[in-house]
Design brief:
single chain; 342 residues; alpha/beta; Udp-n-acetylmuramoylalanyl-d-glutamate--2,6- Diaminopimelate Ligase, Chain: A, domain 1; UDP N-Acetylglucosamine Acyltransferase, domain 1; 2 domains; ten-stranded parallel β-sheet; nine-stranded parallel β-sheet
């Protein structure tokens, strides 16, 4: 597929400087782009690559004199690049209809233009919406509802009664609806608390590979619209994740946490149970959050604290041995002075 640069500029609300009739057939990085491909420049660390790139055009925030080819000026090159990449992204591969090697209970329903690969299992009283794709090894438990245009990649498990919305993407190895971690101690014995709720995933959510999203003890674990999770994320029972929140790899969210909308949770963050994370909060990587965070706050560290305070605190850590030695010297001086004055 080839698209003229003028058309690309229109799609990303950019202005072309140079030959707008150049044909673009793909996207690539500055270093690896070939003639016919478009790249973008948004980070000065890659300035040296501008002089050697073979890209036919460039997406930039302002005209750059080093690159001699046509340039498309936009306000946000990274965002523009993502949208252009979507134009050239290959479509999701689809099996032709419903495979005869899939196991689908007779009481379940599939919509129009679905693609169900061999090796899929769909239990009783399920529904799969129009244009959805289920890859090999997908297990769909009884009474699950899956919306339209949803893609579920290989070896995903969606257990009984869970709800999956429209235009959802679930990557390989994820488990949705496993039991929440609920036990009550009876002396030395741990007595299981039955997990009777469900998981609800709303529209336009993307779940990374090898996520675990536990069903609620009662009610629902709720992932609201537009949420994006990275790989290896744990979301415990009765958690609510607000709209358009981003959760990065290896984050763990304990039971009954409520996360607001447009929150960013960094990698390896741990959040204790029953806390509230306000709207548009940012939590730095490897933070430990043990208490609620107010809307709009930026926190880091373990225990989590205001980000600027954490920067000051972490800067002192490597100096602790030196400061400790100075403190000991001060104590010795004070002791000597006290003896002289006694």
């Amino acid at each position: 597929m080839k698209i003229k640069l003028k058309k690309i500029a229109e799609l990303i609300a950019g202005t072309v400087h140079g030959n707008e009739d150049v044909n673009i057939s793909g996207v690539n990085s500055l270093d690896t782009a070939k003639p016919g491909e478009i790249s973008f420049f948004a980070d000065r660390r890659f300035k040296e690559s501008l002089g050697i790139t073979r890209a036919s055009a460039l997406i930039v925030s302002e005209i750059n004199s080093i690159f001699k080819g046509p340039q498309v000026v936009v306000s946000n090159p990274g965002l523009a690049y993502a949208r252009v990449a979507g134009l050239f992204s290959p479509p999701v591969p689809k099996h032709d209809g419903v495979s005869g090697l899939a196991v689908i209970h007779e009481s379940s329903r599939t919509g129009k233009n679905v693609s169900i690969y061999p090796g899929v299992y769909i239990g009783k009283d399920c529904s799969v919406g129009d244009d959805s794709v289920l890859f090999p090894g997908v297990f769909i438990g009884d009474r699950v509802r899956i919306g339209r245009n949803t893609v579920i990649y290989p070896n995903v498990t969606v257990l009984q009664d869970c709800l999956i919305g429209n235009s959802v993407i679930i990557h390989s190895g994820t488990v949705i609806g496993s039991d929440g971690f609920g036990f009550v101690r009876d002396g030395a014995e741990s007595v299981k608390v039955p997990q009777l709720g469900i998981v609800q995933i709303d529209d336009n959510v993307e779940i990374g590979a090898n996520n675990c999203i536990d069903r609620a003890a009662l009610g629902k674990t709720w992932i609201k619209s537009g949420v994006k999770t990275d790989n290896l994320v744990q979301i415990a029972h009765n958690v609510v994740i607000g709209e358009n929140t981003i959760i990065v790899a290896q984050a763990g969210i304990s039971g009954s946490v409520h996360v607001g909308r447009e929150v960013i949770i960094g990698g390896q963050v741990g959040i204790s149970d029953h806390v509230e994370i306000g709207d548009r909060v940012m939590i730095g990587s490897q933070s430990g959050v043990a208490k609620s965070v107010s809307p709009g706050d930026v926190v880091s560290g373990c225990p989590a604290m205001p980000h600027r305070l954490w920067l000051k605190t972490s800067g002192l850590i490597t100096r602790m041995p030196q400061l400790n030695e100075r403190l000991r010297n001060c104590e010795r001086c004070i002791e000597e002075l006290e003896k002289k004055l006694a």
